Amino acid sequence: MKIALMDSGIGLLAAAAAVCRLRPDADLVVSSDPDGMPWGPRTPADLAERALAVARAAAAHRPDALIVACNTATVHALDAVRAELEPAIPVIGTVPAIKPAAAAGGRVAIWATPATTGSAYQRGLIRDFATGARVTEVPCPGLADAVEAADDAAVTAAVAAAAALTPADVTDVVLGCTHYELVESPIRAALAARTQGAELVYHGSAEPVAIQALRRLGLRPAPDLPRTGGLVVLRSGREGSLPAAALTYAEGRLLAGQGAPVG
């Protein structure tokens, strides 16, 4: 079994690590675009073109499924990627976990990039899946870039700014960008101070999207299997190594244990 994941940068680490934990026997192909990142400021057409190139590079390795491990690319390029690769390769998009977060009808904060916050896409998800919950959209300028660079000081500053915009009575937090799941611990710490230690529920997309990919292949999680899977790293179509920044995160170190080169 081989599962590919694509993103502009290292945001895909969270979903790749989730696949690795759930199916240690799976071979992984992680395809990113350091030459073209960040994707967020690009026009939808330009972003879709970059995403298609990254998807084609991954598809050349003949994966059984492809995860678009990026919220922005899912919004702007999922249809194009599916049109090109399916049905030969099932393509799974990444959607913010708004529906499960809102299920209990509490106070939900959605942390997302400034481009996604207030967008028609996110507002549509709130309308369709968050009826009955009180929802606050929290823009997180600079957070994804800080995570990509593994800049601890910038992450701390961006998290603190977003925490200040988060209601103190929040009950559920949606991590609406795949990069944010890599810094869940500092996010938890900042919001614990904001909410005076209230027990919050955090909703990411990494594990659900990994489970969905397995489901599309007719497979179930089997975390106790021996770790036999390998890893191929593609960077703007070129086979290479995990960036050094990836190793600052537990998810990157887990993948490095798969025998991936690191540079």
CATH topology of the largest domain: Rossmann fold
Low-confidence regions:
259-263
Relative helix content: 25-40%
What is the C-alpha radius of gyration, as a whole number of Å? 17 Å
Proper CATH architecture of the largest domain: 3-Layer(aba) Sandwich
Biggest sheet, strands in spatial order?
4-3-1-2-9-10
Describe this structure as you would to a colleague.
The chain folds into two domains: 2-94 and 206-256, Rossmann fold; 98-203, 3-Layer(aba) Sandwich (Rossmann fold). Helix content is 40%, strand content 16%. The chain is α/β, with parallel strands linked by helices. The protein is built from ten helices and ten strands. The chain has helices at 13-22, 44-59, 71-85, 98-102, 120-129, 143-149, 152-164, 184-194, 206-216, 250-256, and strands at 2-6, 27-32, 65-68, 91-92, 107-112, 134-139, 172-175, 201-203, 231-235, 238-239. Helix 1 (13-22) crosses helix 9 (206-216), helix 1 (13-22) packs across helix 10 and helix 7 runs parallel beside helix 8 (184-194). The chain has a six-stranded mixed β-sheet, with helices on both faces. A four-stranded parallel β-sheet has the order 6-5-7-8.
Furnish the topology, listing elements before pairings:
Layout: E1 2-6, H1 13-22, E2 27-32, H2 44-59, E3 65-68, H3 71-85, E4 91-92, H4 98-102, E5 107-112, H5 120-129, E6 134-139, H6 143-149, H7 152-164, E7 172-175, H8 184-194, E8 201-203, H9 206-216, E9 231-235, E10 238-239, H10 250-256
Parallel strand pairs: 1-2, 1-3, 2-9, 3-4, 5-6, 5-7, 7-8
Antiparallel strand pairs: 9-10
